[in-house]
Amino acid sequence: MILMSFMFLLAAAVNPAQSQGIQEIKSDGVIILCSGGEDGKVKWFKDNNNKEEEIKDHGNLTYEVKADQGIVKGFYRCEYEKTDPYEKKKYVFFLRVQVCENCYELSRLRAAAVILGDVLFTGGVIFIIYRFTTKNSGGTQKRASNSRAVNPPPPPNPDYAPLDPKTRNNAVYSGIR
């Protein structure tokens, strides 16, 4: 449980969407942003099987890519001209995002709260179990100060002698010890 919470926190901390121009991941698609351009002067392109085609009637800074069976994937490119007409800026996006309608974004604060709550709950359970087991054991256990026994065992009886191998029976099971 703690490992799974750590993985969620790590996924929330390493957000690739912020550095690649992805503005928002929605339940039915992804909105990508062509940063640096002017609204109305941006051209968007989509790469379909190594054949790039321009997306018509769309000059905005943002473009919403709709999901196909819950997956948004493909190469997209935005292009705009700076003040110098010969200087074109291009941004390329490779999208491979799985979206769903029932998903929600987990913020860093919420992930940290879940992990902290899990640790506190587990610590509370451990403390309660520790308190109940020490009550039921009858107090603290004391060790004996003298490890030697007061009455040592008696020495072996001299009436019994060890068996002589020459006089023993040599039956089938007599050799098993």
TrEMBL record:
BP term (GO), one: cell surface receptor signaling pathway
Domain CD3 gamma/delta subunit Ig-like: 28-106
Name of the featured protein: CD3 gamma/delta subunit Ig-like domain-containing protein
Pfam family, one: Ig_4
Compartment(s): Cell membrane
Molecular function GO terms recorded: transmembrane signaling receptor activity
Its membrane topology: Single-pass type I membrane protein
Chain segments carrying region Disordered: 137-177
One cellular component (GO) term of this entry: external side of plasma membrane
Superkingdom of origin: Eukaryota
Signal peptide, first to last residue: 1-19
Glycoprotein in keyword set: no
Compositionally biased tracts (Polar residues): 137-149, 168-177
Membrane-spanning segments: 111-133
Organism listed in the record: Cyprinus carpio carpio
